[in-house]
Specification:
249 residues, 24% strand, CNF1/YfiH-like putative cysteine hydrolases, 14 strands, 21% helix, alpha+beta
Length: 249
Amino acid sequence: MTLRIEQPHIFPHNIVAGVTERNTELFPETGLSLLKAQILTGEEAEQHRFHLAKAIGVERDALKFQRQVHGTELRFLANDNHERNTYEPFNESDGMMTATRGFVLCVGIADCAGVLLYDAENGAIAGLHSGWKGTHGNIVRGGIEEMHKRFGTNAASLLAYISPCASGERYIVREDVAQFFTAPALSRINAQEYTFDNRLRIKEQLLECGVLPEHCEVAPGCTISEERYHSHRRDGSAAGRMVAFIGMK
């Protein structure tokens, strides 16, 4: 079984990173889903996680997850606490970071963006979940500041990847969301609706933190319009969850 996994180009060869696709040719009923969502049982989700571990050449225990709640809570993973982020029930957070080689941080996505960070100078990584709420709360800044505290991370040395997500052309929001953002990430369609470019705002936040433009990779894929991705906006309760993942070999 060969899984289709979208590969970032920004990271060096000592980093294992990617974004899982739906792989409906292998999983015709649900697509590959690394979180249960509303379509899998816990046992089925575990089977899918084993498939991912095999595809990227790691043990199942290497995969670390979190129960995401669209907040800005960050979690540090070390050898003494990693088991709680390996099997359900997962710890509640929207960002994980570690300096432990072999851990693979998995960020669940299905229209929200996964933001992967690598600090080569200090040997540290982070995986952040940034939907509009996470972007409004600037989980990117929180993640980079926490990496600086824990590892001595210099933002200018970070490599950053923003995963496929809902595109600025297809992500339609109303005033309850639009009130938190401005142009160019926000564009009015009519009196009630706007389009919101989440990944553009995330990239702006990375640059505002001091990440260099040439160190940022923004995936072009749109989860809403491209069937190879899971999309909650497109498929509702029938949507599974992809993961954006990163680990140090």
